[in-house]
Amino acid sequence: MTTLVTGAAGFIGFSVARALLARGEPVIGLDNLNAYYSVGLKEDRLAELRREFGDAFRFERLDFADATALEVFANKADFDRIVHLGAQAGVRHSIDNPAAYLQANLVGHGNMIELARQRRSSHMVYASSSSVYGGNTSLPFRVEDRVDHPLSLYAATKKADELMSEVYANLYRTPLTGLRFFTVYGPWGRPDMAMWIFTKALFEGHPLPLFNGGDMRRDFTYIDDIVSGVLACLDAPPPDDGAEKAGGSKTPHALYNIGNSRSENVRRLVELLEQATGRKAQIHCEPMQLGDVPDTYADISAIARDHGYAPSTSIDVGVPRFVDWYRDYHGLSSASLA
Question: How many CB atoms are located within 10 Å of the residue 192 CB?
């Protein structure tokens, strides 16, 4: 059974594709390799998939927001299930570049659910975000919570994706599962995320930018735990049985939080990075950024109940793993760090 994975050169897309391939399932990966962050890193991820799995992994450089190009590709490709992880990411970037989010996250998502409908795909899992909770102050965040007050355009596009998916599940009975990801980190991670930014600053001897003075909490979720949750959901599409699904729909559309269900102070993250790198952080306090939230914390009871999801990697374990990978990837020998 071949699975189509969008955003295959991205952090989570690469990791999900790798896990599918590791269990013997062919993957077709789509990605437009945009320059939001290092294209070289994205190409290195793709090279790793080819090195490990050869012809079982096929890659197409394509912008899924281009409906014509997507149709041409789909007409010659054989796949059933879809894992739609491609998107324009980044809360802060959406403030300065709104058009990119409207195109990739709204038009692109619309194209993908239409492809799932036309293909009669047995299931499409897609990426939402914890950002949809916006200014909610009730913790932990539950999939049953109202999410009507986003604080960024990125969050608004992800909420819109959920609404479009609900319509497709209702009108066309297309099986869909949306996953609200909480602060994902780990090997092959993203350079625009705090884990990478802080690690890079420590190794280079630069100040760490701590927004809101570091008085923020995040539900840091290790990539292996995320992947296990994605695959568990992919393998069990929501049934079209009229019963209420996670998130409240009675269509074949479910919504889940996928996090670690442990909210950690950002200053605790800095301490663990100091230990793993052997460097003392220089702190540069900055104000809270537009579109940011002070706390995230996932209630994962729904995905645990329906799919047996049980994250097992604390930041005490995951942070040193990331630092080890970062050191190896950048060729930072012990001598160069002395």
Answer: 15
Please count the helices (runs of H) and the strands (runs of E) in the chain: 13, 13
- Helices in 178-300 by DSSP H: which ranges? 194-204, 223-234, 266-277
Confirm whether 193 is domain-assigned. no
Query: Could you write out the DSSP letters of every residue in 88-113?
Result: ---HHHHHH-HHHHIIIIIIHHHHHH
Q: Would you call 317 exposed, middle or buried from its count of C-beta atoms within 10 A (0-12, 13-18, 19+)?
A: exposed
Residues spanned by the domain of 301: 3-182+222-261+297-312
Residue holding tokens 């049953």? 144
Q: Is the peptide bond before 140 cis (omega within 30 degrees of 0)?
A: yes
**Domain tally for the chain?**
1
Tell me the average pLDDT across 252-260. Answer: 96
**pLDDT single digits (tens) 173-213:** 999 999 999 999 999 999 999 999 999 999 999 998 876 66
126: β partners: 84, 178
Residue 73 lies in a domain: yes
Q: Extract the tokens encoding 262.
A: 């442990």
The verdict on residue 11 lying in a domain is: yes
User: Which amino acid does the sequence have at 232?
Assistant: A
CATH number at residue 250: 3.40.50.720
Residue 162 near residue 178, CB atoms below 8 Å: yes
Q: Is 154 a catalytic residue?
A: yes
Beta strand 264-265 with 217-218 is antiparallel
Please give the pLDDT value at position 338. Answer: 43
Rounded Cα distance between 32 and 139, Å, is 36
Please work out, in degrees rounded to the nearest 5, the angle formed at the alpha carbon of residue 198 by the alpha carbons of 36 and 9: 35
**Predicted TM-score (pTM) of this structure:** 0.94
H/E segment holding residue 50: helix 39-53
pLDDT single digits (tens) 4-51: 999 999 999 999 999 999 999 999 999 999 988 999 999 999 999 999
Q: Which of 101, 154, 185, 309 is catalytic?
A: 154
